[in-house]
Amino acid sequence: MATFNYQGILPQEKREKLTATSFHRTLKPQNSLLRVLSHAPSRRVLVRTMEDVQNDKNAFDNPSNALPSPPQALSKNAKKKLLKQQRFEAKKAEKKAQEKQQKREEAERKRKEWEETLAGVPEEERSRLIESRRSLRKERMEKRSEERERKIKRLTRARELGQKIVVDLDFVHLMTPSEIHSLVQQIMYCYAVNGRCTSPCHLWLTGCEGEMGSQLQRLPGFDKWMVEKESRSYIEALQDQKDNLVYLTADAETVLEELDLKKIYIIGGLVDRNRWKGITMKKAQEQGIQTAKLPIGNYLKMSSSQVLTVNQVIEILLKFMETKDWKVAFFQVIPQRKRPEADSEGDQKVEEEENEEKGDQLDRKKNCIEVPFHV
Fold first, then answer.
1. How far is CA 159 from CA 110, 165, 190, 245, 368, in A?
2. Catalytic annotation on 240?
3. Which residue in 68, 88, 181, 209 is a FRET match for 35, CA 20 to 30 A apart?
């Protein structure tokens, strides 16, 4: 092992004598082989390895590496956000526990009612009630099975001939945990709506990795979803079709008048509460792909910005594919609170269709979670 005598002096600009004590205090080398040899009472020599010298050089070049900085305390805003997130998680867990308890209590109540009903009727009537209940259950199961089969056929056909729509999930690093959770819920709703549609689209999810991939995998039945799941970005997965990519963003100048089956429409999967304005437009420009915006301004005036949720954009596109009418699609999907200044003529035109859907809105919300799990 090569060693040499290091006696003495720091670089010329310092011109400061180095003792064994000051050497340790200044450089604090890690894992050094450092021995102090006393050749004379007034003189000490440091015997060091070449590795020690290189470590010292690195320490001089970058002092921050020599002295590890203490962990920084959280700012007031960071502490507030952390406490808010902790309260959110605690409230979420409490709510989930309450829902489970309510379901158990409701199931127990129905069971007791059924037992009391059977106990209060003659044997012949009891047998008839049991058989009737079995028949109803069997009929419901058969109906659900038939609907699943029809849904699978529709989605299979959409994979071959349907309009391709991509949800870009590469923005997860810009979102908080609650925003990621909100986006996952929107994607789940997108899949449910697409499955119920008579003419579904060919849905793609790109960037399904990291935290977003983990959150999606937690959804029951996600592995059986009939969608394209890509860990890569859309620009990589669809590189051979780059000329047909169209990013839908409210900041685009081009207005989308019709849907082209040859085109692949991209929706930014971002829940940011308007913190990252223009980010999807900038991304599309940097990648050199086309951009377009929905013709919302041609049919109604939004009360705020024209930024919609992912599921609202998907549902608008699906409704347009079904009706070929942008106004009907907008008025049926965009909530009333976002369009208070909409013209009365448009309201009257779609009033009947909206009223027809009010009766089954609760069922649609309920089935939003149930439908994807049966594929």
1. 43, 11, 16, 17, 21
2. no
3. 68
